[in-house]
Amino acid sequence: MRNIIPHSLFSDHDIYLFKEGNHYKLYEKFGAHSIEIDGVEGVYFAVWAPFAKEVSVIGDFNGWHSEAHKLLPRWDESGIWEGFIAGLKWGDVYKYGIRTNKGVLLEKGDPFALSWEQNLQAGSLVSTTWFEWTDKNWMKDRSNKNSINAPMSVYEMHLGSWMRGTDDPHRFFSYREIAERLVPYMKEMEFTHVEFMPIMEYPYDPSWGYQVTGFFAATSRFGSPQDLMFLINELHRNEIGVILDWVPSHFPGDANGLHFFDGTFLYEHEDPRKGFHPDWKSYIFNYGRPEVKSFLISNAIFWLDRYHADGLRVDAVTSMLHLDYSRNEGEWEPNSDGGNVNLEARKFLQDFNKAVYKEFPDVITIAEESSDFPMLTKPVHDGGIGFGMKWMMGWMHDTLKYFKVDPIDRKYHHNKLTFGSVYVYNENYMMPLSHDEVVHGKASLIYKMPGDEWQKFANLRALYLYMFTHPGAKLLFMGNEFAQTREWNFTQSLDWHLLQFPFHKGMQEFVKRLNHLYRNETALYENNFSPQGMEWVDANDADNSIYIYLRKGKKEDDVLMVVLNLTPRVLDYKIGIDEGTSWEVILNSDDTQFAGSGVKAEVEDEEDDEWMYRPNAIVLKLPPLAGVILKQKKLQTAVVEKEKSVKN
Prior knowledge:
Blueprint: H1 12-20, E1 31-37, E2 40-48, E3 54-59, E4 72-73, E5 80-86, E6 93-99, E7 105-108, E8 124-125, H2 136-145, E9 153-157, H3 159-162, H4 175-189, E10 193-196, E11 200-201, E12 214-218, H5 225-237, E13 241-246, H6 272-275, E14 276-277, E15 282-283, H7 290-305, E16 311-314, H8 317-321, H9 343-359, E17 364-367, E18 389-391, H10 393-404, H11 415-418, H12 420-423, E19 429-433, H13 445-448, H14 453-469, E20 473-477, H15 502-520, E21 534-541, E22 546-552, E23 559-565, E24 571-577, E25 581-588, E26 603-607, E27 616-622, E28 626-634, H16 635-647
Parallel strand pairs: 9-10, 9-20, 10-13, 13-16, 16-17, 17-18, 18-19, 19-20
Antiparallel strand pairs: 1-2, 2-5, 3-6, 4-5, 6-7, 6-8, 11-12, 14-15, 21-22, 22-23, 23-28, 24-27, 25-28, 26-27
């Protein structure tokens, strides 16, 4: 009896789509699938290795001997090797023994494996993505939660260092243990979404997950595929969306990974000017190879399909789109038009977005992109790349540069905070304060702020108020919500003990209040991506470092006013308002409940004078280093309320 039984899950149409680069559910065909043939249970294997001399399945079940179970090559020149091995079951460890044309035997993990071992061997595991989901209500309504007209406040987190074992500070919590703690925390803090830094299998912890080897495998550091599904399911059942970081930009050169997979440059571009990343010492996908395109887009669809992800944040898009990224003159080759755009990568990203939104119109794709590459969030049919949102990196860098400056000198940098409003509607932007800004000697956010302890916290609260009232979706990296003092360290838990101190507890309460206000005040999100959503009242008072702007909802009278006083002085400040309006303070970042100094922000006077090109004015007491939010009330409503107050 032969060790390999001929069998195939591929139809002729599957092969045609795969070779054309248009098969987007390859995970249903490739990899290891537990099936039954003629009453015999076992596992069907399929792998793409077109230039291999022979391919076998090796593992504990055959003593890792490459001669025992040789897969059969397909006759159609697809480069696929396949076959059925009886008696194998879930949990069995395996790899592919790939004999190159030069006779070298490579031991490779399965590119489509659903789980990998956590050891030096890093074998693939026969596994399954079967799970009994109970998030039907969320999935049915998530198009509204992911809408650009809905509030989106994202908590970015690294699963391995958010919180560690209470009994052992070096022990990872499992996905299920994280669920027990994360779900109530997310609900308490009122974030709308969580974004997980890569949870696809990766061998090197210092890469934070961005050097992926198992693109279809949930990392087994924290448990099984079903354990991750449990975490996502619990978040969904509690009305919290899940965004996954996705890395189609590069992969590491690990011996059992994709690099030189069948003895040739199969997944990566052979030309090192296009195929090797000099900064990360990793390998860049060959976006022009149809089978690689099918692999990557299938991977994106897989996480949305099998894991119910609500969005994908695509990492390092700038490096994908630019042939000269991180390269000196002579180290890159211009495209056919003589430019620096990687035309194959651009086409891949367009096809990726088209495929995702066709299959899952209720999810969102987000580009992490730091250049001014045009039309990233415009539809593909209009010549755009098709992303749902783009990280507004320029806003993040300008804002942090401004807040680092001593308040006495801020008048010389006034336009750093106003400049973002010039281009904020060019794309659908997400405002990030991400993990990249609190590592590698950049200091934590709280220690970027100038001044003594009180001033540092006051500055950071003002920054957060500015962020949450600026047009665009929001993203805050874990620990920043309570002003973690040390830089992020992926080997340690966040410093949750800091919450025993009033300044840190006050910061956490402030972020909670901002999230609550953001979710409940439609003026802060309904027109996030429309020029009708923001209006400057005064952007020119550099001497006092004062900024005043309006945020507007779809209804005419749905208006908030934001006033930032970014110096340590208390001011009585005259502000122009429209006729027939009255204003009520609804949030003051200097309030004592947030560990502020307690200077009360209040409207001290209302005047009929024309001011700031508006017919009337108010005089507002401004607390030091603070942001204040006021809500507009129609004068008629204000008069009625005043009469009621007098009667009472």
